[in-house]
Each structure stands twice: as C-alpha cells, then as structure tokens.
Amino acid sequence: MTNYVAAIDQGTTGTRFMIFDHAGQVVASHYEEHHQIYPQPGWVEHDAREIWDRTRTTIGGALAKGNVRAEHLAAIGVTNQRETTVVWNPKTGEPYYNAIVWQDTRTQAICERLIREGREAQIRAKTGLPIATYFSAPKIQWLLENVPGLRARADRGEAIFGNIDTWVIWNLTGGKNGGVHITDYTNASRTMLLNLQTLDWDDELLKLFNIPRAMLPQLRASSDPKLYGYSDVLGAVGGRVPICGDLGDQQAALFGQVGFDAGEAKNTYGTGCFLLLNTGKEIVPSKSGLLTTAASNGQTCFALEGSIAIAGAAVQWLRDNLKMISNAAETEEIAQSVADTGGVYFVPAFNGLFAPHWDMYARGTLVGITRYTTREHIVRATLEAICYQTREVIEAMEKDSGVPLKTLKVDGGAVKNNFLMQLQADILGARVVRPIVNETTALGAAYAAGLAVGFWKSLDELRANWGVDRVFEPQWDAARRADGYAGWQRAVERAKGWLK
Predict the structure, then answer these.
(1) Which of 83, 136, 233, 320 has the fewest C-beta atoms lying within 10 Å of its C-beta?
(2) What pTM was computed for the model?
(3) CA-to-CA distance for 218 and 240, rounded, in angstroms?
(4) What backbone torsions phi and psi does residue 486 show, to the nearest 5 degrees?
(5) Contact 143, 100 (CB under 8 A)
(6) Taking the alpha carbons of 395, 462, 186, 71 in that order, is the dihedral positive or negative?
(7) What digits encode the pLDDT tens for the residues 92-123?
C-alpha cells in the first residue's frame, strides 16, 4: 500500500531525503553534507560522485528512521541546486570534471566577450536571463574548452550534460545501465539555452556557445504522469518506485508554498535567497534586474525571480572561515544582544552581486567599522544583509509587476531564526508569513511527483495542506527603516566594481 510520497532535495551544501504523508507532514528525513571545493579564488566545485553517494545514504537513512519500505512510496520527486553543471560519460557513469557550482565565476571571460559582442539583448529576449557567470551554458563551454579531449568526446556522443537534477535522475533510474537523461522546464530555463517562447533548446544559442545539441537532456514536464522512469536504488528495501517529479529548488519552493496562481510570491532563505513571483501564462520581461523563468511546469506557468547569491552562505562563512560562531543557531541570540549594528554594513558579494545589480566585478565589503565594533555587531550586520538584499529584490519586483507586496511567504532553513524573520518584516515594512512546514523545497518536489501518480488529485488538495506557523509584523518606524536602507545602498556602491 502506498501511504507516502518522497523527495530528494539536493542542495548546494547537502542532500536531504524527505518522506511526506497525504497531509503534507514530514514522516521522516535524513540529511548529509558534501564537501565544498575551492581550487582558486572565485572557483566553486562539487564532486558529483560524492553527491550521488550522499543521495543514496539519505534515502536509506530516512527510510530506516520512518520504518518505511519502498513499496510504501507512491512516487519520488527530485529538486536541486540549479545551474550547477556536470558533464559525464554515459557509458561509464564517470564525470569528466568536478561539478561547476552556480556560484562559480571562472566563466567571467566568456561572459565579458558575449557582452562586448552585443549579445545581451539577444540572449535575454530568448531566455529571460542576463549574461552572467551564474548560468549553465558558459560553464559547459568552459568545460569543453578546458578539459583535455572533452570536445572530441562530446562530438562523438561520449559526453552528456546535466544540472544536478539530471545527474541524480540518471543515476536513480539505472545510470550506465539504462538511466534516463532528462530535465524539466524549470531547470532547463536556467541554462541560458532554453527559448522561453518555443520551450525548446535554441539552436542559435547552442551555436553561440558551441555546445552539441546531443549533449543536452530530453525536456519533460515538471510533474509527469508518463513517468521519467523507476528507481532501482531502492530494490534492497522493497522494490522500484516511480520517478515523476522534477523542479529546480526555487520553483519547487514556490510549488510547496502553493503559489499556483499569478501574483503569488515567496522567498526562500538558503545558501542564497531567491524570491519568485508567479506571473501565470504571461512571460514578463524584467526592466529592473530580475530574471524571467519557468515556474512549476514550464508549459503553463512562468515567474519573475530575484536571485541573491549569498544569504545563509554568509553565516556559514562566519562559522567556517572566521570562526566567529560554532553554529548558525547562535546568530539569533548574538544578534539580539546589541540594539543595532553600530553603523556596520556587510555586503556579502563573495562571487559578485546578483539581482538586481548583476555586477560580476563586485566583491564582499565590510564598512563602517570603528573601535566600537564587536563580533556581535558583525553577526547582526550579516543577518541584516540578508534582509536588505531581499528588500532590493522586492522593490525591483514591484517596479516590474506594478503591484506592491504586502505579505511575503518565507521558507528554507534560515526561517527558523525568529529574529531574522522579525528583521525582515522591519526592513521591508511588510508582513512575513512562515508556514508550518518550512522545508517547502522538498515538499514542492513531493507534490509534483504525487500529483503525477494521483496520490493528490488536485491543486485544491494541496492548498488545503498549507498552514501558517507564525506571522511577523513590522515594528520599526518609517524613519529608522529609511535610514537603515540608505546606509545599505551606500555600502553596496562601495562593493560594486571592485575587481575593476
């Protein structure tokens, strides 16, 4: 009997396998981190084989914790860190190089050349994306040009590409023994190779980046009743399970927040911050530094997105690099121990600034430091930076959509921090609503898979599952809000163009 639906949530810092019941409540969960590899300044890599090993470990761990067997699962959905690029040999299953992570900036020269050639308008018109190191296409081009022999192998059909969803699903469904090579429209829309108008890989862009079309995965719906395939990984614990849901992590979070209708928005607080506004069937070009992207199922739904590169990763940097904290949970008490930042602003542009600035030359900046500055001020400034970056994106979204945001739905690991959520409400001057289940990325992938097999019959069923945990109301007065934001904007100007 199939009582549950599960999801693989493969993120930037780790992988989680979560099992949900029909009410959308968590039955069991298991999480494993993977290594972050930094070969040079600005370079960020992952070992794709390690990610797959961790994925298998999380599956077994969650099943054991929940006393669940594969035969109890109706389906599995997959959600993933987007843009992170893997190229591998389909005959051996071995990657030709480490996965190049979405934060990586090594493709700067490729992007600069395209900008000099005047390709920005052409690429944005087709894909909804600016030219930036963020996306997959320049990463694929870099691999083909820099990994010895890879170009010839790709031309012979011995190299295939995928973002992490494609890599995980290929391995889940058999790998070198018949694994399916697919992606969905939400992930495809992050490659800089998908034409949003035709919803197909664009031959002109493939030629521009010199990427063989045969490398690319087949395009499939995000929630697919035809199924992508069956997992053979779970055989040892009870049988094969349909794989039929696939969404990029931020689109999955919007789906998990039941943001199915035009005008609904959410912000996910993870390694980065990602705010999505559902625009329905309308493809809305941004004039304010946002991305136009596929949402939920790219055949029917689109979104405006504001992507912030560094949010929770800044807290991780305080922990791992500066040793200021031992764990992220400490930041709540530490930040509350001071009334403000003492005039300190931290702009965490470690890999440049994403929306709405799109400055690949920006770098991290800590300003306003005096002899009065303490560890507590810097920790608080780190949390405020997350909130100020979100405000910048929301203001851009309001300009593009013409609709002021009164309520922001939030999710992701960092929303457990009550002080951070209150700061967000204060800096925005808007209500912040936290749901009961804040791991909505995994929940959205589970919803997509469950809908495909009829575990849930309709979107209304999913809406009925959504519940509010807490609402944060703004408490700052308008003058404090304006002064704080003006200081932030000055700090951002200091960070811009640093590499120039």
Answers:
(1) 320
(2) 0.84
(3) 22
(4) -65, -40
(5) yes
(6) positive
(7) 999 999 999 998 999 999 999 999 999 999 99
